[in-house]
């Protein structure tokens, strides 16, 4: 069986991460598995975890009052799920539901925050990996808002 | 490819063999050819379809019908003419001029990897490319289709996508902008699919078709993955009248979309794409 450390080391998000940092992260990690249809987190609940997806697909959903839930994005193998553990008041912004059997490594948010505070180099390294992903997701949302497949204004 | 009529501004009357419903607002007209030899075309070319008494619009050829032997045109209803075309029934007649324009670089792509990015109705002009690749699969390296639509019920050609994926080893990835609880596939922008498929960026020909905004983002992402811009091709849309380079209606920078396009290599039109008023 693979150790948590070697699973993390082989995940694209942690590619080329220094061994000492990997050890810090492994100290906050545990293996988790979600069945298809199972909620990984619910909107407004405490965001105490950060997930590194190893296999499967997760739908990020919003449930506007009185309307059916809509999926805004899916997160797949090789990607990460959740940034709300980094930003007060540490509450999830949406629901996350496993679309299919999903295996992930869960990282304890509190534990990671503590290690980031104690070792700023580690904190900087982690943020430098998370921020570009947040940037890409923000841009993806902007493109979705443009409704690029809708009617063209100019022809 | 020669137009069906020796005078390219005179429409040929073709009978509708079938109307296929593809999605809520999208349908395919299967046109009976007057003579089977007259339905030659290159992938990416278009015809001018004339709804009598209403007007004509440029519509890409989306394939050849296995039933009628004639052209297929897949049309999204957006306004006056496309709405009139949608009202037509089997057995009725429309006016057709074409095929016109320069299509996709299917020959240039031989021996290379191919990445096809399609958005919404943009899959229609690319379907003949996938069919051509499918029938000469060993001439191409890794081939992928990345296809995005607004909602799951707007996704086109599900049977074809299964065939391309199944028998021909084409990597097919699909995504929608917004999903519902019944949708088990990907949700997110089409550009997000690029890193899920295998291709050698320097040896890749990319073909992109969809709304202009989608194409801009797609080109930028392809560049980020190292695909040289002169290996990226996009299909442009502008209003047309004559479709043969006479009237200037479709002028875009120094080019006429009808005659010099609609498919262009990216560097040749990039400067004009960045001009706001064009
Ligand atoms: C080379 C070429 C190939 C094309 N191939 C296809 C094809 O295979 N299938 C197809 O459905 N269309 C295709 N089009 C687009 C098609 O020609 C237009 O949708 C059509 O001209 C619209 O005419 P209309 O009279 O129905 O709409 P109009 O009455 O002219 O417009 C009504 C509304 O629709 C919007 N609109 C106009 N054109 C488009 C468009 N392209 N997309 C979204 N909204 C639009 C307008 O901004 C307006 O708000 C192609 C265009 C070109 C230039
Ligand atoms: S439509 Fe007349 S020049 Fe292109």
From TrEMBL, chain A:
This is Cyclic nucleotide-binding domain-containing protein. Transmembrane segments: none annotated. SUPFAM superfamilies: cAMP-binding domain-like. SMART domains: cNMP. It comes from the Bacteria. Residues 13-82 form the Cyclic nucleotide-binding domain. Pfam families: cNMP_binding (PF00027). The lineage of its organism: Bacteria, Pseudomonadati, Nitrospinota/Tectimicrobiota group, Nitrospinota, Nitrospinia. InterPro entries: cNMP-bd_dom (IPR000595), cNMP-bd_dom_sf (IPR018490), RmlC-like_jellyroll (IPR014710).
Automatic annotation (TrEMBL), chain B:
Residues 9-106 form the FAD-binding FR-type domain. It comes from Candidatus Nitronauta litoralis. The keyword Iron applies. Pfam families: DHODB_Fe-S_bind, NAD_binding_1. One of its GO terms (molecular function) is metal ion binding. InterPro entries: Cyt_c3_hydrogenase_gsu, Dihydroorotate_DH_Fe-S-bd, FAD-bd_FR_type, Flavoprot_Pyr_Nucl_cyt_Rdtase, FNR_nucleotide-bd, OxRdtase_FAD/NAD-bd, PyrK_electron_transfer, Riboflavin_synthase-like_b-brl. Its cofactor is [2Fe-2S] cluster. [2Fe-2S] cluster binds at residues 242, 247, 250, 258. The keyword Lipoprotein does not apply. Keywords: 2Fe-2S, Iron, Iron-sulfur, Metal-binding. It comes from the Bacteria. One of its GO terms (biological process) is pyrimidine nucleotide biosynthetic process. This is Ni/Fe hydrogenase subunit gamma. Binds 1 [2Fe-2S] cluster per subunit.
């Amino acid at each position: 069986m693979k150790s948590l450390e070697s699973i993390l080391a082989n995940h694209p998000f942690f590619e080329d991460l220094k061994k000492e940092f990997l050890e810090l992260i492994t100290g906050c990690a545990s293996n988790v598995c979600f069945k298809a249809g199972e909620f990984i987190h619910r909107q407004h609940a405490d965001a105490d975890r950060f997930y590194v997806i190893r296999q499967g697909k997760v739908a990020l959903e919003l449930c506007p009052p009185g309307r059916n839930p809509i999926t805004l994005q899916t997160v797949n193998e090789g990607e990460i799920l959740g940034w709300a553990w980094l930003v007060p008041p540490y509450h999830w912004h949406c629901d996350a539901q496993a679309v299919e059997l999903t295996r992930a490594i869960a990282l304890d948010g509190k534990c990671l925050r503590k290690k980031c505070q104690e070792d700023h180099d580690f904190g900087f390294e982690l943020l430098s990996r998370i921020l570009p992903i947040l940037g890409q997701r923000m841009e993806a949302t902007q493109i979705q808002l443009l409704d690029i497949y809708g009617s063209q204004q100019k022809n | 490819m020669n137009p069906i009529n020796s005078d390219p501004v005179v429409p040929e009357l073709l009978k509708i063999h079938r109307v296929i419903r593809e999605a809520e607002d999208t349908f395919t007209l299967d046109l009976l050819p007057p003579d089977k030899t007259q339905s030659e075309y290159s992938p990416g070319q278009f015809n001018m379809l004339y709804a009598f008494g209403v007007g004509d619009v440029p519509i890409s050829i989306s394939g050849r019908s296995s039933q009628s032997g004639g052209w297929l045109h897949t049309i999204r209803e957006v306004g006056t003419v496309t709405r009139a075309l949608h009202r037509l029934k089997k057995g009725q007649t429309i006016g057709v001029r074409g095929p016109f324009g320069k299509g996709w670089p299917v020959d240039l792509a031989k021996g290379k990897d191919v990445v096809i990015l399609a958005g919404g109705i943009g899959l229609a002009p690319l379907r003949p490319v996938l069919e051509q690749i499918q029938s000469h699969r060993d001439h191409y390296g890794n081939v992928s289709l990345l296809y995005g639509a607004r909602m799951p019920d707007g996704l086109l050609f599900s049977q074809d996508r299964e065939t391309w994926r199944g028998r021909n080893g084409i990597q097919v990835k699909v995504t929608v902008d917004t999903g519902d609880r019944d949708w088990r596939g990907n949700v997110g922008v089409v550009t997000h699919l690029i890193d899920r498929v295998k291709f050698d960026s320097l040896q890749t020909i990319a073909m992109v078709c969809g709304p202009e905004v989608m194409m801009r983002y797609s080109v930028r992402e392809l560049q980020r993955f190292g695909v040289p811009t002169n290996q990226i091709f996009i299909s442009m849309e502008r209003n047309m009248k004559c479709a043969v380079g006479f009237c200037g209606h479709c002028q875009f920078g120094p080019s006429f979309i009808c005659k010099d396009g609609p498919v262009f290599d990216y560097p040749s039109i990039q400067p004009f794409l960045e001009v706001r008023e064009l």
